[in-house]
Amino acid sequence: MTTLILVAHPQLADSTSQQFFKASLPPEASIVWEHLDAQTTFDVAQEQAQLRQADRIILQFPLYWYAAPASLKAWEDAVLTRSFVYGDHRYPLADKELGVVVTTGMPAKAFQRGGAEGLTLDASLAPLAAVAQRAHMRWLPTFAVHQFGYLTETQKLQLVVDYQRYLTQPQPDSLTNRQAWFAQHLDQMVAKLPADQQATGRLIATTFDQSRADLDQLTDTLAMIKETEDD
Question: Which of 13, 129, 176, 220 is the most exposed place for a label (fewest CB within 10 A)?
Fold first, then answer.
């Protein structure tokens, strides 16, 4: 799977969250990362070609006054032309996945009915969801990170895993897909641990494999019981 990440941030070098995300990209994955603000004009043909080649497209930005930074809107206006998105009824982006990674300076509870912000994140991102619908794309659940600067080291370690899964794990985010993703990546994660944590990492990997085997056996047993009941 090829993932295209389009980052909209006017001060990328000063953003600790965006630098964190970039450092967290899984090196073995097929990922294209692009900073929109670094371009004064967009090569429309190249941008559209990237969209055609990607399986999952991620729009990544901080929330500025309930919307994305201006560079994303400029990119949309230049690249997502009517003829490209739906005008010829060929829908080149159909069935591709569109997701959003958004950071906010307010806590999650602020983005709910009666909250301090007065609207939900889904309401703020509704125009992007509408683009996905118009293009016949599959809209992914939003990946929101609230108040990154207040996260603990443990929370940041969890964020790395969650972010990598959002970029590369098949949807939906089911238990089966999570298990398959961890089975594929756990050994690589353990190998990157410091030497004094390697033993703990291997123990976690062994426990995961055993738990997965037990769950598979339980699933098979339940399936057999269901077949018996159906008969």
Answer: 13
Up-side HSE of residue 182: CA atoms within 13 Å toward CB? 17
Asked if 58 and 28 count as a contact pair (C-beta separation under 8 A), the reply is: no
Q: What is the pTM of this model?
A: 0.83
Residues of the chain with pLDDT > 90, as a percent, come to: 71
Question: At 105, which amino acid appears?
Answer: G
Tokens describing residue 229: 């009941």
> 118: phi > 0 → left, psi -120 to 50 → alpha, else beta; which?
left
CA atoms of 71 and 91, how far apart (whole Å): 24
CA–CA distance, 37 with 186 (Å, rounded to integer): 35
Q: Does the N-terminal peptide bond of residue 172 adopt cis geometry, omega within 30 degrees of 0?
A: yes
Angle of CA points 73, 77, 83, to nearest 5°: 145
Backbone phi, psi, residue 89, to 5°: 65, 25
pLDDT per residue as tens digits for the range 185-202: 776 765 665 666 656 645
Sign of CA dihedral 64, 66, 67, 70: negative
| Model confidence pLDDT, tens digit, residues 157-166 | 999 999 999 9
DSSP reduced 3-state for 112:
coil
Q: How confident is the model at residue 215 (pLDDT cuts 50, 70, 90)?
A: very low
As given in the structure block, the two tokens for residue 224 are 């057999």
Enter the DSSP assignment of 39. -
Q: Where are any strands of DSSP class E within the chain?
A: 2-7, 30-35, 56-62, 97-104, 138-139, 143-146
